[in-house]
Amino acid sequence: MRSELLDLHRALVDSERREYERARGRMTDRAFLEALIGAPELAWLNPLTSLIVRLEEALEEGSGGTAVQDCVAELRKLLRPGTAPGFQRKYAEAMQRSPEVVVAHGRAIGALGREES
Question: What pLDDT does residue 60 have?
């Protein structure tokens, strides 16, 4: 599940970088990282980033059970159409322009679904 979520996040960041640079010109990795952290246009990624960090922390702490299940449930909800309007609009746009995002989304949903059982 970790790998699939990180792949999804990476695909989204790559897609957003292409769009961001298309409008502003090529950027160094450092400059883009600063934009990723502070630019309002990229802030829509924050809910996914935060949930992945929370999940990683819960898994590392070994708290397992409830904390991990809560993160997984929130991730499922975030990635489900119509449940997070601001995020979903930008997420749908990313899926429309990037086959990599579509593939990563499918894998992440599959991994999150497998965790239920």
Answer: 87
Write the secondary structure of 27-66 as one string of H (helix), E (strand) and C (coil): CCHHHHHHHHHHCHHHHHHHHHHHHHHHHHHHHHHCCCHH
Q: Residues of the chain whose pLDDT is less than 50?
A: 115-117
Of 115, 113, 111, 91, nearest in space to 102 by CA? 91
pTM of the model: 0.87
C-beta contacts of 89-93 below 8 A and 24+ residues apart: 90/44, 90/45, 91/12, 91/44
Segments forming the whole domain that contains residue 97: 2-114
Distance in angstroms (rounded) separating the CA atoms of residues 39 and 35: 5
60-81 pLDDT tens trace: 887 667 888 899 999 999 998 7
Number of folded domains that form the chain: 1
Supply 31's token pair.
């400059």
